[in-house]
Amino acid sequence: MLSRDIEIFRTVMTSGSATRAAKVLGLSQPAVSMALRRLEERAGLELFQRPGGKLQPTQQAQALLAEVQRHFVGMDVIEQRIRSLKQFGAGRVRIAAFPGLGTGFVPRVLADLAAAGTRSMVSLQVMGSQDVRSQVLRDEVELGIAAQDISTAGVEHALFAHYFGVVALPPGHPLARSSVVTPKQLARHPFVALHPDDAVSQRLDAILHAHGLQLQTVVETSYTFSLCELVRNRIGVALVNPVTAVDYLDAGLVFRPFSERLEFTALTMWPAGRPLSPFARQMLGAMRARLQADMDGLRATMPPAAGKVALHQFQPLAASPA
């Protein structure tokens, strides 16, 4: 079966007609029609009905198109990799990270590596955790960083760290006078929250429910940095991950520990059956050092009594990837 005929079939199906497909492919319409008939004969399938000379795809054509599209997605990935190799060579390190760490934390880690003399061409993509996993599954990145609340089937992975929610407040807010904020205090003020289907949001709801309380939610959003922007604009207070909180210390936001442990967790993942590159290994060590430095810096902005509440917890080094 000729791959060119399959390409012509795909173009006809996606463009909607043999005439448009011929223009896209730079072929004559008779050549397109001949390729479709040849494909039908070799496949032994009726892919099109032709009332009045017009092509009408059959259900078999629709089913075949689904398989063909999957094939061409794979080809697109190969073409992108070829373009990348031409532009950067084999030395480029591709990293995908979810927004909770990708927007501020990972750039700080890369800066630490550069300052230490570790240099490499890096492609950093920031996307949702499910998309990070998809990139790793398709072997499109060497290292993925994602929230724990996703499947790790089909990829190598290791727990990076747990870190615990802190209360984000605008400057001068009454809760800033507290060393630690309790659920009861939080429930008294307008609140900006992650969407209800977010796993962290569900854990927070469970904490409030256990105390017989309900938040006064005024805005819901998808990302922690959006929560911080909402707090900065005095729309409400929020519970945010402490890694993103570090990005907003210079913006004047005030952060206090939450009396209950609201857990965020980050995973590292990489393609199955492939060892981590030397740069990726160095990056994992730098991530650990940066998280410790960031949490120490965040702690320094809080009252001394807040020091009794943990902000993070590392996975033991013995369990880190070899």
Automatic annotation (TrEMBL):
Coiled coil: none
SUPFAM superfamilies found in the cross-reference section: Periplasmic binding protein-like II, Winged helix' DNA-binding domain
PROSITE patterns with a match to the protein in the record: HTH_LYSR
InterPro entries: LysR_HTH_N, LysR_subst-bd, WH-like_DNA-bd_sf, WH_DNA-bd_sf
Segments forming domain HTH lysR-type: 1-58
The species this protein was found in: Massilia timonae CCUG 45783
Family: Belongs to the LysR transcriptional regulatory family.
DNA-binding keyword on record: yes
GO biological process: one example: positive regulation of gene expression
One GO molecular-function entry: DNA-binding transcription factor activity
UniProt keywords, alphabetically: DNA-binding, Transcription, Transcription regulation
Name of the protein in question: HTH lysR-type domain-containing protein
